[in-house]
Design goal:
By secondary structure, this protein is of the alpha/beta class. It contains 5 helices and 7 strands. It has a 5-stranded mixed sheet with strand order 3-6-5-4-7. A two-stranded antiparallel ribbon has the order 1-2.
């Protein structure tokens, strides 16, 4: 068994004992600064999220979203936020999303085949992205 600081370890680290000895005194290797975390966290908060219902609709209706689609969806929600939208319909090519703008959360999703003869209620705005 390998040991470090008098403690027997049930495994041998890939880098060996020397690698363990290189760690900081707290045992945590610093990867980035806390500002990096803060920036990443803030960016994630700005991204649109999907409710459990919307995620199941995306899966069941086989609605695929590319990175470009996500950028356009985020941009549309930004515009709706600036205009004071609350519950909004976002039309993106042959897909539609009902979005809670203050929460930046997609509530439900539809594809072209679901939109025919559909009535969408309880929205206060719409945008073509």
């Amino acid at each position: 068994m390998a040991g470090i600081d008098g403690v027997n370890l049930p495994f041998m680290p890939i880098g060996g004992i020397e690698e363990l000895n290189k760690q900081t005194s707290t045992g945590i290797t610093k990867v980035g600064s806390s500002s990096d975390f803060g920036e990443i966290f803030a960016q994630e908060l700005e991204n649109v999220k999907f409710s459990a219902h919307a995620q199941s609709r995306l899966t069941s209706k086989e609605i695929d979203l590319s990175e470009n689609d996500m950028l356009r969806l985020n941009s549309a929600v930004d515009k709706l936020e600036q205009k004071g939208g609350n519950e909004s319909l976002v039309i993106l090519d042959e897909k539609a999303f009902v979005v809670s703008v203050p929460n930046r959360t997609v509530i439900t999703a539809m594809n072209n085949s679901n939109m025919e003869n559909s009535v969408i209620t309880n929205i206060d705005s719409a945008v073509f992205a």
